[in-house]
């Protein structure tokens, strides 16, 4: 009996391919290159990145699109839902890693640790010569978290032992979160001196971190982004860092990856990482397993493990 065909339309974690091949016929191809017969056999998709409405429409028998990563903004989940197609993502298994990275970025931005290390490696540490004191400290800060979902809550938990004040902004207030709630991002930015963004890429979050919000943070302000670069007006951020409107930033994500604007690269008070918040071997393996397990569960037992909210869950 022939096995179910699963399309892998582009580069994906090697473990996804290895495990998929144990259970499925894996077709590694761009869907636009498949002829009608081949496209008609595809029932599942495993994708890391983009799978738009045209790609979805080109596969008449597809039932489930399993997307690598918790952010699934590259997959047209709304369009898939209109056709009864399930989209899954990989939530929760990366919460700890991403939250750890957020804390690392925060400490690095506030205490200038990467710059200090570069200074040492460049041979500047000599008798009588010490790296300058960092202008900022984490002590006594008021940290605002923009997005208190799965990852935002883990960031907040990690911040508690640092004895900082914690507040947040989301559209819906959390009944149980023991932190100050601000119904608007502007109100949060005015109240805090440190802002961590961990919201998804949606129409509503586009460039919401703008000149106005940065100005509200103030000259001691620190901005950390582990969500999506889409959320930030990068020109406004670079200008704010350059002029001293805010003090420092730590960024794991950028508007047009992998292109990082020179205006940010040139700044000494920005710590910049190449979108690696979930990028450890154990965490990426767990994400890869969840991509495959969603397909295995759906085709074996008729229920997806982690459907996205847009998906009409079946089973
Ligand atoms: P969740 O869906 O669990 O949480 C999202 C949070 O954002 C919720 O608290 C939600 O609250 C809030 N939110 C959404 N839209 C808005 C809005 N318009 N205004 C205010 N708050 C909003 O997602 P996760 O915590 O699992 O992941 C968050 C995002 O982090 C992912 O979508 C992904 O883009 C990014 N990410 C980045 C990684 C990296 O490598 N740097 C790794 C993993 C994730 P409410 O709905 O009440 O507004």
UniProtKB/TrEMBL annotation:
Domain of life from the UniProt record: Bacteria
D-isomer specific 2-hydroxyacid dehydrogenase NAD-binding domain residues: 103-277
Tagged with keyword NADP: yes
Family: Belongs to the D-isomer specific 2-hydroxyacid dehydrogenase family.
D-isomer specific 2-hydroxyacid dehydrogenase catalytic domain span: 7-308
Transcription as UniProt keyword: no
Matches recorded under Pfam families: 2-Hacid_dh (PF00389), 2-Hacid_dh_C (PF02826)
InterPro entries: D-isomer_2-hydroxyacid_DH, D-isomer_2_OHA_DH_cat_dom, D-isomer_DH_CS1, D-isomer_DH_NAD-bd, NAD(P)-bd_dom_sf
Keywords: NAD, NADP, Oxidoreductase
Single GO molecular function: hydroxypyruvate reductase [NAD(P)H] activity
PANTHER family, per database record: 2-HYDROXYACID DEHYDROGENASE YGL185C-RELATED (PTHR10996:SF178), 2-HYDROXYACID DEHYDROGENASE-RELATED (PTHR10996)
Cellular component, GO annotation: cytosol
Protein name: Dehydrogenase
PROSITE patterns per UniProt: D_2_HYDROXYACID_DH_1 (PS00065)
């Amino acid at each position: 009996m022939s096995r179910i065909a699963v399309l892998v339309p582009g580069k994906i974690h090697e473990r996804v391919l290895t495990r998929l091949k144990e259970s499925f016929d894996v077709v590694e191809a761009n869907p636009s290159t498949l002829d009608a017969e081949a496209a008609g056999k595809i029932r599942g998709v495993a994708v890391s990145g983009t799978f738009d409405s045209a790609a979805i429409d080109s596969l008449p028998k597809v039932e489930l699109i399993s997307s690598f990563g918790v952010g699934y903004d590259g997959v047209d989940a709304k369009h898939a839902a209109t056709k009864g197609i399930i989209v899954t993502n990989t939530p929760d298994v990366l919460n700890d890693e991403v939250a750890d990275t957020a804390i690392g970025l925060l400490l690095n931005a506030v205490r200038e640790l990467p710059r200090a290390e570069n200074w040492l490696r460049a041979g500047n540490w000599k008798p009588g010569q010490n790296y300058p004191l960092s202008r900022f400290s984490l002590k006594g800060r008021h940290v605002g978290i923009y997005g208190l979902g799965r990852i935002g809550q883990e960031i907040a938990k990690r911040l508690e032992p640092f004895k900082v004040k914690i507040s947040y902004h989301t559209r819906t207030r959390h009944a149980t979160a023991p932190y100050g709630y601000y119904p608007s991002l502007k109100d949060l930015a005015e109240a805090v001196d440190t802002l961590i963004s961990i919201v998804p890429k949606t129409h509503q979050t586009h460039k919401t971190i703008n000149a106005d919000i940065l100005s509200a943070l103030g000259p001691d302000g620190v901005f950390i982004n582990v969500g999506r670069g889409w959320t930030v007006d990068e020109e406004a951020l670079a200008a704010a860092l350059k002029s001293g409107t805010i003090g420092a930033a730590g960024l794991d994500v950028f508007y047009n990856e992998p292109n990082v604007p020179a205006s940010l690269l040139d700044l000494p008070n920005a710590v910049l990482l190449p979108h690696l918040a979930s990028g450890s071997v154990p965490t990426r393996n767990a994400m890869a397993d969840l991509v495959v397990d969603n397909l295995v569960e759906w085709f074996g037992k008729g229920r997806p493990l982690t459907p996205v909210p847009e998906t009409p869950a079946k089973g």
